[in-house]
Amino acid sequence: MTATARRKAVLRSSASIPAFCSAAAIGATLVALVGYSMGAAPQERWLLAARYTARLSFPIFVLVFVVSSWNRLAPSRVSRFLVQRRRALGLAFATAHTIHLAALVTRNVVAGERPGAVTLLAGGGAYLVMFAMALSSNDAAVRLLGRNWLRLHKVGIYWLWFVFTVSYAKRTFGALPEFAPLFGLAVAALALRIAASRARRPPRVGATSLASAEG
Q1: Helices and strands (H, E) in the chain, number of each type
Q2: Considering the domain boundaries, does residue 210 fall inside one?
Q3: Number of domains in the chain
Q4: Contact, 19 vs 91, CB < 8 A?
Q5: Is the dihedral angle over the CA atoms 150, 151, 156, 159 positive or is it negative?
Q6: Has residue 111 been placed in a domain?
Q7: Would you say the C-alpha torsion 27, 33, 36, 38 has a positive or negative sign?
Q8: Would you say residue 71 lies in a domain?
Q9: What are the pLDDT tens digits along the chain (215 aa)?
Q10: Residue 9 burial by CB count (10 A; 0-12/13-18/19+): exposed, middle or buried?
């Protein structure tokens, strides 16, 4: 990609941020209201609000997680459109997941429960990383952080994937089979990234020579 094309892609992504984040905020608020309306008691209402907002934010996260790999393995107009707006997608996820956090914290307050140490470390850490990624999703932060920007976003994206996957795995194998598709989607997303990573690696010299000899 040339410098001019790269600048155009950045401008397209930046222009999409308000629309993507607004849509995520409206969508998360609506599904939270739907979940809240389905509960019989305050604790159940906020639990369902938190659960439904997570089910909205997770597919957005998966798109952010796999879109570059998808575009590398099977480029299309849709994949290119999303890659060019990956920053906007990431901020849309952060918007929706912040509303999920608000519903989750409210549920814990209403229920009088405090998260355990492991939950605070893994889940709370994931939110801190998510906010750090959101705040650094701009050109100024990229220039300021340099290589550390890549480290932050790579560690962060896998940390979030790990928390989602473990959460859905515990529910899937804990007598809540309705979470199995979400767990399967998380595993499939990782498999796609691994496949794209392997496809990007240049073949080893020995393997190339052997293939040439056989051909």
Answers
A1: 10, 0
A2: no
A3: 1
A4: no
A5: positive
A6: yes
A7: negative
A8: yes
A9: 455 555 565 666 678 999 999 999 999 999 999 999 999 999 999 999 999 999 999 999 999 999 999 999 999 999 999 999 999 999 999 999 999 999 999 999 999 999 889 989 999 999 999 999 999 999 999 999 999 999 999 999 999 999 999 999 999 998 889 999 999 999 999 999 999 998 866 555 443 333 333 33
A10: middle
pTM, two decimals, is 0.86
| Token output for 129 | 């990383």
Calpha distance 35→180 (Å, rounded): 20
C-alpha–C-alpha distance, residues 4 and 25, integer Å:
32
Q: Which two tokens stand for residue 80?
A: 């290119």
Residue 208 lies in a domain: no
Q: Residue 90: which domain range? A: 7-197
